[in-house]
Amino acid sequence: MRWWFSALGMVLWLPIGAQAAALSCLLEPSVDVHVGVASEGFLTDVRVDRSDVVTRGQVLARLNDGVERASVDYQRTRESFAQRRVSRTEDFRERRLMSEQELDEIATELQLARAELRERRERLALREIRSPIDGVVVERLKNTGDLINNDQVFRLMRLDPLFIEVVMPLESYGQFALGQKHSITVHHLEEIHEVELINVDRVIDPGSNTFRLRLKLDNPEQRIPSGLRCEFHLNAF
Predict the structure, then answer these.
(1) How confident is the model over 184-234, as pLDDT tens digits?
(2) How many angstroms separate the CA atoms of 162 and 221, rounded?
(3) Are residues 175 and 184 in contact, defined by beta-carbon separation less than 8 angstroms?
(4) Buried b (16+ CB within 10 A) or exposed e, 139-155
(5) What is the DSSP string of 145-176?
(6) What long-range pairs does 78-83 form, CB within 8 A, spacing at least 24?
(7) Can you tell me the distance from the alpha carbon of 61 to that of 113, in angstroms, rounded to the nearest whole number?
(8) CA 63/CA 4 separation, integer angstroms
(9) Helices 66-94 and 100-125 sit at what angle, rounded to 10 degrees?
(10) Mean pLDDT taken over the chain
(11) Any coiled-coil ranges, and where (predicted)?
(12) pTM of the entire structure?
């Protein structure tokens, strides 16, 4: 019986063939990301708070955007005018009352107006903070009225699936394959769950002669929180 140290803490290792061999582990989010905005301005609309469940693409907050909205409205009017002008020239084209160069210039003006409208809409979108993942809000770092200058505003985590990383000794290298099913006991909940091996390190840490396994625990209802201690069982589920 030997002790092995990892970033998750001290873990106890038994030989892989031992009956009921187990390792201490920790449930971690599969994604942990800080979200901000690549613009400067004041937060005027904060829509979520800590512990709120969010979906990918959901608007979390907005900066002041009056100038950008007015710019989009102005360009939308120009695009509409260019479209009407093209429509009016269709009759002239059939009757050959306008040269091809004039018709081409009018059509090009419409294309340029549409491109400019897309650009201004993109600038308006930069005033929004959207969630890049399905997950939960862990921290709200700014409040309504705060001045933002390329700052982080939220910390989000994805809890489905949860990840478990386990440190293994060099002697057990080569005995694992992706897709293997194992089990963990989640402390506090006192539940046993099936987990799937999704990653095996290809590099051995020379200082400790260890390598890491990453396992996945499906958590579709996000009922199981990250941060709970667990026990990883080497025997199959």
Answers:
(1) 999 999 899 999 999 999 999 999 999 999 999 999 989 999 999 999 988
(2) 12
(3) no
(4) ebebeeeeebeeeebbb
(5) T-EEES-EEEEEEEEEEEEEEEEEEGGGTTS-
(6) 78/113, 78/116, 78/117, 79/110, 79/113, 79/114, 79/116, 79/117, 81/113, 82/106, 82/109, 82/110, 82/113, 82/114, 83/110
(7) 29
(8) 49
(9) 160
(10) 87
(11) 100-127
(12) 0.75
Percentage of residues of the chain with pLDDT beyond 70: 87
- Could you give all domains of the chain from N- to C-terminal order, each with its CATH number? 2-35+157-233 (2.40.30.170), 65-126 (1.10.287)
H or E element at residue 103 = helix 100-125
CA–CA dist 36, 140 (Å, integer): 11
Written as six digits, the tokens of 172 are 């057990």
Tokens matching residue 64: 């002041």
Burial 188-211 (b: 16+ CB within 10 A, else e): eeeeebebbbbebeeeeeeeeebb
Q: Return the C-alpha torsion angle 235, 22, 223, 216, nearest 10.
A: -60
Contact indicator for 213, 177 with CB cutoff of 8 Å = no
Sign, CA torsion 203/204/207/208? positive
Structure tokens given for 68:
């950008």
Q: Do residues 135 and 220 touch, judged by C-beta distance below 8 A?
A: no
User: Does the pLDDT of residue 8 top 50, yes or no?
Assistant: no
Task: Give the Cβ contact number of residue 8 at 10 Å.
Answer: 17
